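ok here's the first one, seq then struct tokens
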Amino acid sequence: MDEPIKVLIVDDALFMRKAISEILQSDNRLNVVGTARDGLDGLEKIKALNPHVVTLDIDMPRMDGLAAVRHLMIESPVPVVVLSSLFSDGAVTFEALRLGVVDFVPKPSGGISEDMDKSRRQIIDRVKIASSVNFENIRRVRMLVGDTKENLAPRHGQNALQYLITLGTSLSGPNTVIRLLTRLSPALPAAMVVVQEIAPQILPAFAKKFNEHVPWFVEVARDGMILEQGVCYICSNTQSLSIERNEKDQPCIRLDKAVDQPLNKLFSSAAQVFRQNTIGVLLTGVGDDGADGFARIRDYNGNTIAQDTHCCVYPNLTQNAIEKGTVRKVVTESQLPGAIEASMA
């Protein structure tokens, strides 16, 4: 039998510490080795208990969760799953994911309630997956410095739309997406559509804050939106997103209910509309989604790019596509912007 996954719970509310502990202890693979009441207490107990995963609240006295993440990533690196009620605060969600937490999960809003029951499986799954993370590949994103409003003035619609960049990722993907968009020129004749694993409750606030820090214009994908050059449209994988042409023959976004493999649907539908001008990008993630959609892009002579498994937080998505032979180019994270731009040369 596998070694139990040791978990430390950091939350200032006694009730939540007990509730989260009960949720995690209900799974025989998880072992709650301790609890902490704030960030300072958490840092001390991480060093003493050596947990495999930490669940972390944000709003705490003495040292809040964001400050704790900044310290522990340097002093005692460990995978962090944020459990917080501050999901509507864009600055908090964006900063946590930028700093490299594995995931940001909305905290259950009440006691042993229906909400708590619905959250139970998500919390258990996230902690289990976090325990298998390739932690050496987690890095904080350095943001642009200077007058953001001046530097990031008109950013989209300046050039004709010729290409579509379709990007798929799952767990721990938002951190890589943030880093990519800080380095990719918004002057490219392309729009970008991103499907990633992120709670839909978090997404609007996350996208709003994301938009303030990158040269691309970032929007939450909505049904019927017409694709524009220089705009990055982000969607949670809890919905399915496809690319179609509307009655005016304009490329647009269609949203529908969840499907088992949303990345395959994104890539395949984009290839049917943009054909050889489709660029598929597959990043870190868990599962086997995306490879079949990449095959459709290849059928139309589009370009498919995968992040090298050695620099992925989770290698499953890219490894599966590479092994199936649907990837044209395998690149490191630092090579991604150049590879995408070269696809439009």
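and now the second one, same deal
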Amino acid sequence: MKKLTHLLCLLLLIYFQARSQDNKADDANIPKGVPASTNIRGAKYPLILPNHHVMFRLKAPDAQKVQIDLVKKYDMIKGDDGFWSVTTDSVGEGFHYYSLIIDGIATADPASESFYGMGRMASGIEIPFAGGDYYAEKDVPHGDIRIRTYYSTVTKSWRQVYIYTPPGYDATTSEKYPVLYILHGGGEDERGWATQGKTDMILDNLIAEKKAKPMLVVMPDANLGGGFGEEGLKAFQQEMKQSIIPFIEKNYRTKNTAGNRALAGLSMGGLNTLYTGVYNTDLFSYLGVFSSGWILPVQSGIANTQYDFMKQNSTKINNDLRLFWLSEGGKEDIAYKNGQVMLAKLDELKIKHSYYEYPGGHTWPVWRNDLYNFAPLLFK
């Protein structure tokens, strides 16, 4: 028995020494770079190289074809050891969704944290951004993100909402706050602004620097069915008026006037903002439309009906809205052309508005920057 135990210990020693040597050899072969901050704990790949090229490495010995879908698709090369690898072109700074495509099936990378985007759970990668200090975690007072469940009288079901409360919210029982309701894009849900959007970090830092007023930020799920059609837009408008706003104002210390409510959204959320916000300026005094604009020609009927409404109610809209803020992610933004058509129409109708442009396309780096610039303009 003692001999067997001794032999077992010897074999284990040999095994771990071999593993250690393999790891050292593997480490020696890794090019100079850093694992993405979005990797799961201990994962070496994806590896971000100094020029923002990204190296991927995956073991899939039985696969016939493996690709990385990150901005564009890259074919991975299989080695004799069963590992597939590829190095991408330089990838833009900030957060990006990506997927593995294994023999034609798109899936999340097991080495990466997963995020709900693209209509499913997908991988995400954070490329270091020299200008991203405004959403970095700093030694400042921090607010909370709370997850609440409420009953929707529209869907007749229980739904979830994320709520940012500013630093010091629980330190008093008397102070009331204005509210920004902010909406995700298509293929995302209430987790988008809380996770991919870094909303809490952006607001914490702005409030600490006294650039923005302390506020609640409410991040609901805008997926109610009906897609981009008027049925879906009407359903969300009802959800806001009948369920979300009443729930927030009943359960949180809020200032319940139009001058203390803002509505904003990105892409699909921007369309919801246009529909709900423009028709309800008695509820919201601030509107933010990020990377959006009526989709033409698909939504021409919806757009023309709203433009007729604006023409007939231009004085009221201009008097009610303290800020109508629109933005695009530059000419590479897929919403750019539709947005420019809408801006020209607003000029024609003499609807007061502001326009902001930040290069980066239809991506989270753009929308984080939108929030960073929009929030300080609110509740003045």
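notes on #2: Residues 1-28 have pLDDT under 50 and may be disordered. The chain has two domains: 31-130, 133-377.
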